Amino acid sequence: MAPADIRKVILNILERIAPDEDLSHLDDSKAFREQMELDSMDFLDIVMELRKLYRVQIPEADYPNLISMDSTVTYLTPLLKDVPA
Amino acid sequence: MHYHTLIIGAGMSGLAAGIRLAYYQKPVCILERHTTIGGLNSFYRLRDRNHDVGLHAVTNYAAPGTKTGPLAKLLKQLRLRWDDFALRPQCGSAVMFPGKKLRFTNDFSVLVEEIAAAFPPQIDGFRKLVTTIETFDELNLNQQAVSAMQVVSEHITDPLLVDMLFCPLMFYGSATPRDMDFNQFVVMFKSIFKEGFARPFEGVRRILKTLTRHYKELGGELKLRHGVREIKIDNGRAIGVVLDDGREITADNVLSTIGSVETFRLCGKALAGQTVPGDHGPIEQFQHGAISFNESISVLDCQPKELGHGETIIFYNDSERFTYDAPSDPCDLRSGIICSPNNFQYENDQQLEDGIVRITALANPDYWMGLSPEVYAAAKADWGTRIIDSAVRFMPEFRSHVVDTDIFTPKTIHRFTGHLKGAVYGAPRKILTGDMPLKNLFLAGTDQGFLGIIGSMLSGITIANNQLLRD
Fold first, then answer.
1. Residues B184 and B449: beta-carbon distance below 8 Å
2. Could you tell me the residue ranges of all domains in chain A?
3. How confident is the model at residue B363, as a pLDDT?
4. Domains of chain B, CATH where assigned
5. What is the least distance, in Å, from the CA of B462 to any CA of chain A?
């Protein structure tokens, strides 16, 4: 998957976790938490959704990489490079 | 079929845990002894009328679009939209004690103003108590029990106000007589006074049906009339369950929502002398609760509002001090709860077909559990009348408008929930982490310790997340 595909995957996950949030104005460089209400349970859900979808394991030490859309896509690009879009 | 997790009990917590597991594609099966879902919060049909049992109101109300708090957290975790529960806010409630009435609504400032007007010397202390409550982390699962009476009395010196604040919180969630754990007090204070009451127009059915449909769509299995008589244990692990009819089902994990002592019993001798992780000590030290209620449900030939009764819920007490304990009489007639499901702000001024008044009073579980079948019905009717006669002192007269009546007792609660002694709020000692003496056996629901309808669902979610979805 290319970074643009990964971005779409993350957006889909966020829509599922928070269906009442408007994500059309999401700023990719800013922390998710500054733009929408996400607590620690929600971050864990992003990790679990990725595992469910692509069997990708994200160790707890790497969770800080999931702070914003940009950092998440950068972190996931090498992990998902062989996954078909 | 071998499951990832077997869940015992199709109440709010079991269904919510089931949704989380099914969503993450774990083979999961919920086993329910009863013929319908819901457990303590269920529904039934009697003489062509729908009734709710348990639920007076959903606490933890938040308006549509609210993104923080327990309700928002719950909806996100279950992947539900706000509209799925269709909660409508209360009209307004009150605590009525001798010479004092405190009104409260879903706008917390109303209660603050009422206290300032009725108890001027106490308002500063009350504000300090609110700050203590707001800064308290009730979601920390590794905390020690602290007496709420002690903490509250440090801020508020008038025992009448102390009792009036405790009364609704105890009635709606305390498994402990005469006091609460401060953690539980904070949970209840926030859910009732700060967030407030709501109800779907269709009652608890709406919530349970939403949960069940969602669970099944995700691939979860639900088996009614499947009581569990034993949890099978081998080599220190739960390996499955034995059903009432002798059939066996195997699983990697078992999540019980039926109560701590009730779960230990299903494990039999294998747990003797074992300890619950986290300073809880051996299982023999755990006791089931003894707080239970009688409730009389009156169907009226008119709306309660037409008789001048506009409150959603009234918590009343006629004595100098409020006593929250199992009474020595069959029922405690000094205090109680008056709830009218008509008095919520339903959409487009929709109104329930029948007027309903539910009156709930503390009951003596031993008396009701011990009655012989011949005298049970008469005792139930007699005390139902006495409860109503006591409650009309705190509301407009309605007795001549009653067209149908139903009554439940601790015995009814025991029959439908399996809670020993019909203990509505379970055991006084909660196991917040959900840990049990076996590595792959867990506890959710009433005895895990999150309270109310929203709390019970969050209990199932939390234990599923922390204990069953970590691998």
1. yes
2. 3-17+29-79
3. 98
4. 2-46+204-287+425-468 (3.50.50.60), 93-195 (no CATH), 290-417 (no CATH)
5. 9
Cβ contact B67–A39 (<8 Å)? no
Contacting residues of A for B81, CB less than 8 Å apart: 19-20
- By CA distance, what is A14's nearest residue in B? B76
Query: How much is the pLDDT for B173?
Result: 93
Q: Residues B436-455: pLDDT tens digits?
A: 999 999 999 999 988 889 99
Strand, coil or helix: B220: coil
pLDDT for B408 equals 94
The answer to whether the CB atoms of A41 and B72 lie below 8 A apart is no
Pairing of strands B93-97, B313-317: parallel
ipTM (interface pTM): 0.86
- Kindly list the distances between the CA atom of residue B192 and the CA atoms of B64, B104, B186, B326, B328, in Å, as whole numbers in the listed order: 18, 9, 10, 23, 29
What does DSSP say about strands B248-256 and B402-408: parallel, antiparallel, or unpaired?
unpaired
Beta carbons of A17 and B65 less than 8 Å apart: no
pLDDT of residue B465: 95
Is residue A61 less than 8 Å (CB to CB) from chain B? no
Q: Is the pLDDT of residue A69 over 90?
A: yes
Q: Does B466 touch chain A if contact means CB atoms closer than 8 Å? A: no
Q: Cβ neighbours of residue B171 under 8 Å, at least 6 residues apart? A: B315, B324, B337, B360
Q: Are B77 and A45 within 8 A, CB to CB? A: yes
Residue of chain A with shortest Cα separation from B462: A41
| A14 CA: distance to closest CA in chain B (Å) | 10
Interface check B63 vs A, CB under 8 A: no
Q: Which residues from B are below 8 Å from A57, CB to CB?
A: none
Which residues, 6+ apart, have CB-to-CB distance to B318 below 8 Å? B98, B334, B335, B390, B393
Residues of chain B scoring pLDDT < 50: none
- Which residues from A are below 8 Å from B82, CB to CB? 20
Residue B273 has φ and ψ, to the nearest 5°, of 75, -5
Q: What pLDDT, in 10s, does the model give residues A2-57?
A: 999 999 999 999 998 887 788 899 999 999 988 888 888 888 899 999 999 999 98
Any idea which fold A3-17+29-79 has? Answer: 1.10.1200
